[in-house]
Amino acid sequence: MFAPNFFQMQNRSRSSFAFMLDDVDKALLEALQEDARLSYNELARRVHVSPPTVAQRVRRLENMGAITGYRAVVDPTVVGRPVVALVRMKCYGPRCITVHPELLDDLPEVVEVVRLTGDICSVVKVVTTSIMELERLLVRLASHGETSSAMVLSTPIPWRPVLPG
């Protein structure tokens, strides 16, 4: 199966691509989420197709937006940022971080922002070097709206791969 052309892709919602994934695509996605550093040869061995087929399929998965990037998962404690917190935000208008995420571009402590429905607009995940730095960051975030924070004590279920439907 070949990837649709660009025009066809523009006229489809991203969710419709899930129906275009076969078992090999799903196995590739699962393996790459487990270890994105696997070679095409190793991926081919695991999913029982040739390395050129793996290369073509991975490129297609990237082009269709199923694979959006590759990154290392870093333990914040090991790199000197042992304070991890989730900050719930209620913000509206021109200072809202979900409407203008660029307002947080100068805050490397902010590692993720998730936009939500309901009585809060977002949850901001932050990693800091100390409680004092967390307090300074919370004051800065409060300039964008109402905040409520919770420190992360542990992560019993870490990040998991997304299994294609």
TrEMBL record:
It holds the Pfam family AsnC_trans_reg. Keywords: DNA-binding, Transcription, Transcription regulation. The keyword Transcription applies. InterPro entries: ArsR-like_HTH, AsnC-type_HTH_dom, Dimeric_a/b-barrel, Tscrpt_reg_AsnC-like, Tscrpt_reg_AsnC/Lrp_C, WH-like_DNA-bd_sf, WH_DNA-bd_sf. This is AsnC family transcriptional regulator. The keyword DNA-binding applies. Residues 21-82 form the HTH asnC-type domain. The lineage of its organism: Bacteria, Bacillati, Actinomycetota, Actinomycetes, Pseudonocardiales.
